[in-house]
Design brief:
Number of helices: 6
Order of helices and strands: EHEHEHEEEHEHEEEH
Number of domains: 1
Strand order of the largest sheet: 1-2-3-4-5-6-7-8
Structural class: alpha/beta
CATH superfamily: Aldolase class I
Strand content: 15-25%
Radius of gyration: 16 Å
CATH topology: TIM Barrel
Distance between the termini: 14 Å
Shape: globular
Helix content: 25-40%
CATH class: Alpha Beta
Largest sheet: 8 strands, parallel, barrel
Length: about 210
């Protein structure tokens, strides 16, 4: 069954709802230019309220220094580091279980994946001035091709209406959603949240 990551968590209410509906992972964005940015202290409060033991907490960083990531990890207590910027391959080898995000425009954008040793690759839609959360789709055939490099987390433009088709076509290790289940930037729509998770986890016959 595909795993589901709900990204852009900024408050306890949304975190509780995501977990109650069956999310496998929560993403916290520590990039101050993002409208879904959360401070380390706020993220720590959410995590320390008592999440279930099998829910993974993921910190999303964009071109942050190693020292900066370690400092936030210590304050917040996140489980996994997600590098969502232009980090080189060696940066992905500093921590265990790293997720490296890549923004996709065409099949040629897959070439750098071969140089990274990570736990999973998150594939998002390319946008000129944004590192994720754009709500844009990209060609899922690229994601299918990317599976040769390792575990694929499909992101970019996913929502309750297209998640079943995405899982059926790509058969990813996991899916990631942020804007597709929002009522406003940084605040989740709990009906969309429930629908997305339920539909992602349906026993869908894969391609």
């Amino acid at each position: 069954m595909v795993k589901v990551k709900i990204c852009g968590i900024t408050n306890k209410k949304d975190a509780v709802a995501a977990v109650d509906y069956g999310a496998d992972a929560l993403g916290f964005v520590f990039y101050d230019k993002s409208p879904r940015h959360v401070t380390p202290d706020a993220a720590a409060e959410i995590i320390k309220m008592g999440l279930p033991p099998f829910v993974t907490t993921i910190g999303v960083f964009v071109d942050e220094t190693e020292e900066g990531i370690n400092r936030i990890k210590e304050v917040v207590g996140i489980d996994v580091v997600q590098l969502h910027g232009n980090e080189p391959p060696e940066a992905a080898e500093v921590w265990p279980n790293v997720i490296k995000a890549f923004r996709m425009r065409d099949f040629v954008d897959l070439e750098p994946l071969s140089r990274y040793k990570v736990s999973a690759f998150l594939l998002d839609a390319y946008a000129e001035d944004s590192f994720g959360g754009t709500g844009k789709l990209f060609n899922w055939e690229i994601a299918i091709e990317a599976r040769q490099f390792g575990r694929i987390i499909l992101s970019g433009g996913l929502n309750p209406d297209n998640i079943e088709a995405a899982v059926r076509k790509v058969n990813p290790y996991a899916v990631d959603v942020s804007s597709g289940v929002e009522a406003a930037k940084g605040k989740k729509d709990h009906l969309k949240l429930r629908q997305f998770i339920e539909r992602a986890k349906k026993n869908i016959e894969k391609k």
